[in-house]
């Protein structure tokens, strides 16, 4: 067992004029350190393709997580998927990336563009064993993992980008690899890397994709713990216990809330230095306490972080807003979304008297809901979450 982990991110754009995407990505935890990622590309586009790809990815990921061999998974798909009345075939191409104990990557590829492996920032070839399952030609690979490895899986919408416009025969796999090498060493998350690739494909399509286009990126990195303190404890006598547990954890420490930061300041015996520098008018300014990595306001700031988290899991359209700015919500977002792999929440259940004003849209339930929704979003990002209430 090692301290490596997988950062997984993906993004899709629909065939121009279609409401549904014919590609589907499924991520299933086989165990605490083993994950199965399936990218399926349904035949054609629209509703039928969406059904085919969703069924394929769900069947494969569920069966493999249960320990069944890939041959049985493929035979089940062949027997399950409906046959297209027009083409007379019924299948969805797929790419499987199975991470075993964060030590080995097993790749199983059928008819999708082959996975790109960037190692030490450059495109790296890897061995592929060709095998036949039924009438399908499958390529299988086993690759020992290294820190910094980046796996890029994609549907055929990526290499088809630019056909007849920017490129005569589309965007070749080697050209895609060369394009992504530019960003490999920058430190971007898997989600950002997948967004960069799909946005470039969309540009090559002239904003009107001729095929469903999906990129799924898996980035191997070391674990990075993070701790966030939000709100004072319900019982004042628990302050010291809450603070000692919070500061005993390794990793960076984030404190959210005015009352909370006052308690932290008293506990550490360090002054709380508030700032009057409003980075933006709708987010309260940050503060400083020696020994704390980031001090912010509470509910308003965390609510904005939740907005960014929901967008990050979908279109990632607000990335430029939080990735560059210095307000509290942007700083927390960068720490939680990009740096952290394991996040410990320390949540106080005290009711803030200032929030009991009926004129204010803030109450205790909203605060608890914020924590629940934010932790749910972070789990979907692949973060390990632990929440402790006081």
**CATH architectural designation of the largest domain:** 4-Layer Sandwich
CATH superfamily of the largest domain: PPM-type phosphatase domain
The geometry reads as elongated
Per DSSP, what share of the residues sits in E-state strands of 2 or more residues? 25-35%
Number of helices: 10
Helix % is 25-40%
Low-confidence runs (pLDDT<50, min 5 residues)? none
CATH class of the largest domain: Alpha Beta
Question: How many extended strands?
Answer: 18
Distance between the amino and carboxyl termini = 33 Å
Tell me the number of structural domains: 2
Give the rounded overall mean pLDDT: 91
Q: Numbering strands along the chain, what is their spatial order in the largest sheet?
A: 2-3-4-5-9-8
- Report the biggest beta sheet as strand number plus sense, adding barrel if it closes: 6 strands, antiparallel
Describe this structure in words.
The protein is an alpha+beta fold and 390 residues long. It has helices spanning 47-65, 70-80, 173-184, 190-204, 239-248, 258-268, 299-313, 319-324, 328-339, 364-380, and strands spanning 4-13, 23-31, 34-42, 92-100, 104-110, 116-119, 122-123, 129-133, 136-144, 150-154, 213-222, 225-230, 252-256, 273-274, 287-288, 294-296, 342-347, 384-389. It has two domains: 4-222, PPM-type phosphatase domain (Phosphatase 2c, domain 1, 4-Layer Sandwich), CATH 3.60.40.10; 225-389, no CATH class. Helices cover 33% and strands 28% of the residues. The strands form four sheets. A six-stranded antiparallel β-sheet has the order 2-3-4-5-9-8. A five-stranded antiparallel β-sheet has the order 1-11-10-6-7. A five-stranded parallel β-sheet has the order 16-13-12-17-18, with helices on both faces. A hairpin with a 2-residue loop joins β6 and β7 (122-123). α1 runs antiparallel to α2, α7 (299-313) crosses α9 and α7 (299-313) packs parallel to α10. It is elongated, with a radius of gyration of 23 Å. The mean pLDDT is 91.
